[in-house]
Amino acid sequence: MGILLRTEAMKVQWSIVILLIFLDTTVNAAMGIMQLDSLKEFFMPNWSTLYMYSVNFHAMFFYPLYCGILASLLCLYEHRDGGWRTVLSSPVPRYKFYYAKYLLLILILALVQIIFLLGYLCTGYLLHLPGVIPWDVLAYTIVGGWFGIFPLAALQLILSIKIRNFGAAFAMSICYVVPNIVLTGFHSSIGAWFPFTIPYYIMMPQTASYAPRVEFYSLWFIVLLTGMVYLFSGRRFFVRRDWL
Length: 244
Known about the structure:
By secondary structure, the chain is mostly helical.
């Protein structure tokens, strides 16, 4: 599996990945700074309010959108000139190729979370914000948001394998993300069944004035159940598909 993972990593267009991560961090940091200034009469500027402003757009739009884009990039090489037939003609079991792509996808998504966190911390230090850094909130939302993206990563990988056209896959990812404006307004026991909403439910601190209504146990039950269903459905589809 290690060799397969390194091979998959060599196919990735890392310049695009780095650009996307930099864009996410920069835009959300800028939005956090602007809202911190414009809303200072209503919410005292501190580490918690900066995180609330910064994570809002990241969790609702950028992170789930990037999940679809990155999944499409991971399959871009094989969609060219019959690459799937070439790759799958090797004696390595098909399911290992599928798991290698999924593992690389969630590792890149972990990198997105880490860089977002570093961007938030750098922004806070540059602004000399008062108060203490909410490390307990950061630990739960950053790590939890990463785990929460697993079902969507499995679903997007299935779609990226099926859809040959990168533009179509990108458009579909946008269509999935836009309804988050409405769906995240539902209670998590309803909205979390749509996997692209889960990062927002987990990452938006419940102390925020516009935080979604979340029930901890039902949310994580949905994450576990849908994650397993999408992952093993994707494996079944990948192994049984007639690639010829």
